[in-house]
Amino acid sequence: MPVFIFNNQSFESFEHNKLSYKMLIICSLIMFIILIKLIIKHMQKITPNLWFEGNAKEAVDFYVSVFKDAKVLNISYYPSLEEGALADFQKSMAGKVLAIDFELFGQKFTAINAGPEFKFNESVSFLVACKDQDEIDYYWKKLTADGGQESVCGWLKDKYGLSWQIAPQNMDELIKKSGAFKVMMGQKKIIIADY
User: Fold this and answer.
1) Would the CA dihedral through 64, 65, 68, 71 be positive or negative?
2) Which residues share a beta bridge with 163?
3) Is 159 exposed, middle or buried (0-12, 13-18, 19+ CB in 10 A)?
4) CB count, 10 Å around CB of 138?
5) What is the DSSP secondary structure assignment for residue 90, as one 8-state letter?
6) What is the rounded (10 degree) CA torsion for 163, 166, 169, 171?
7) Domain end call among 118, 150, 172
């Protein structure tokens, strides 16, 4: 006779313990439903898509190296020329990386590997809320390296032209202090001790 194990208790056959077997199935289904609901609840509904000029892989490798707890989730590729699916302006991209899904601190992004049609500008930026001055200094140095540009008020552009705001987590408190706005306007990198 078959033996089933449930809660460290064995029973010889589900025919003798149909109620226990049914409870096992019901509990499994309930746990599955709860798991699905949790996954749906925590799914990110909006994913920023970033357009890069043929260097998406290089850019994603850079971001994954700068940000702790970062990872590449998926890479997709343009079809080959033989498949005949590419528009004329895409033919130079045949077989190359099309898009890379990646994650920084749990935030998902998609890097699109494309042409020169679109450029980043300061109208969109990503805020990195830093716990202290050391973290501000770290991200400032990493993101302005190799051709990145400092701006004002904690803003910068990285070497790919993407804008970032590197600020302390408590900036909303610091800015309420007397004279804080003037201090901020005079800074490039935010120096917490100046507030």
Assistant:
1) positive
2) 125, 157
3) middle
4) 16
5) G
6) -90
7) 118
Burial label for 135, CB within 10 Å (0-12, 13-18, 19+), is: middle
Q: What is the DSSP string of 137-177?
A: HHHHHHHHGGG-EE-STTEEE-TTS-EEEEEETTHHHHTTS
Range of the structural domain that residue 28 is part of: 4-41
Rounded CA-CA distance 3/5 in Å is 7
Q: Which residue has the tokens 């357009």?
A: 51
Looking at the fold, whether 53 and 89 belong to one and the same domain comes out as yes
Give me the residue label for tokens 């900036």: 171
Per-residue pLDDT, 20: 60
Same domain, 110 and 127: no
The answer for residues whose C-beta is within 8 angstroms of residue 120's C-beta and 6 or more apart is 50, 51, 157, 160, 161, 162, 163
The pLDDT of residue 65: 98
14 and 35 housed in the same domain: yes
- Mean pLDDT, the chain cut into blocks of 10 residues (195 residues total): 48 54 59 62 84 96 96 94 84 92 96 93 96 98 97 97 97 94 96 95
Let me know how many helices (H) and strands (E) the chain has, helices first. Answer: 5, 10
Q: Which of 58, 86, 118 is the last residue of a domain?
A: 118
